[in-house]
Amino acid sequence: MSLRRIAIESSIVAVALIDGVLGLYRHGAVELALTVVAALGLVLRRRWPWASVLLALPALFVVGGPTAAVIALYSLAASTSSIPVLAIAGSAVFLGLSGFWVYFASVNTTLIFAVYALMTAGGAIAIGQLQRTRHMLKSSLAALREAREHEHGRIAQEAAATERAHLAREMHDVVSNQVSLIAVQSGGLQVRSEDPTTVETARRIRTLAAATLDELRQMVLLLRDSDAPVSDLAPPPTVDRLRELLAEQDLPIESHLDLPDDLAPAIQRAVYRTVQEGLTNIRKHAPGARVRITATADAQGILVEVSNSPATEPPDEPLPSAATGHLGLAERAANLGGTLVAESLPDGSHLLRMRIPHYRR
């Protein structure tokens, strides 16, 4: 019980006790004891309101202090909607408040006392019922609010599922088919060509196309079914595959990789994607450049740097680009509590740096 609740209950008991003592018209140990019992009985009014009413009635009939009985009747009305229960308790409090058998001066006086008792007992019941209705409405509103939020969430999930299915369909119908065609044609070129350089280039294109198709398959499955078990998909990129990625490149690369084996999967994906994005941009915008790749762990966290010297060859015809690669890496870094820096230096070189906290599995 909170201090505020204790203070409120103590104040109610004190008020009932003071009213009962001041209203004593018979002075004696029995009357005083009944007054104290009636006041202390209010402590039970929230959990056992019937007990509070029963403990307050003797003092009401013998002593005449009304506060404890009225508060107990209010608590009973706030806890139940049973008409027989309220009628019995209300009638008992009404008889105790009217007190016409104790003091009867005239019909008018008795009538005034009866009206007073009826208004007091009836008012306590009415206010208690009003409080009960308020609590019920409050609970109903809370339930309706929760149901509405649940419905909004369900609608949002359905909309997201529809959009995922649409994206999966478009990726399969457009991207997957075109990448499959690239893989088929590069395979044919690899078989038909007699030039070793052409054969090696075609083999690399086919390998990259196959890897792209595999990753597209993962994304299509996840988009179509967000509950699809990840274990059924191809393994995500990890730092162990960095050396394979570097070995597939036909660029002059100097690398320094020194990362622990127990990095969290999200960090491993971020490291891999940073190196992958850096190499892709170098091939597109700085052909012939020398590349330096660093991926290390220190006390501050994980540091990944992909830098290149100025281009030594004119770039090929520019490929379509939405400039979202760095944006996606920045989002990955931010989600992991890190930062991403991409800058072009005056001599034409470029640096891509990601630093993220060192989280292990």
TrEMBL record:
The EC number of this protein is 2.7.13.3
Q: Does the record's keyword annotation contain Membrane?
A: yes
Q: Membrane-crossing residues? A: 32-48, 54-76, 83-104, 110-130
User: What is this protein identified as?
Assistant: histidine kinase
Gene3D superfamilies listed in its UniProt record: 1.20.5.1930, Histidine kinase-like ATPase, C-terminal domain
- Enumerate the spans annotated as Signal transduction histidine kinase subgroup 3 dimerisation and phosphoacceptor domain: 163-226
User: One Pfam match, by short name?
Assistant: HisKA_3
**Which reactions appear under catalytic activity for this entry?**
ATP + protein L-histidine = ADP + protein N-phospho-L-histidine
**Annotated source species:** Glycomyces rhizosphaerae
InterPro entries reported in the protein's UniProt record: HATPase_C_sf (IPR036890), Sensor_HK_TwoCompSys (IPR050482), Sig_transdc_His_kin_sub3_dim/P (IPR011712)
For the keyword Ribonucleoprotein, the answer is no
Which class of enzymes does this protein belong to?
Answer: transferase
Molecular function (GO) terms for this protein are: kinase activity
Keywords (alphabetical) are:
ATP-binding, Kinase, Membrane, Nucleotide-binding, Phosphoprotein, Transferase, Transmembrane, Transmembrane helix, Two-component regulatory system
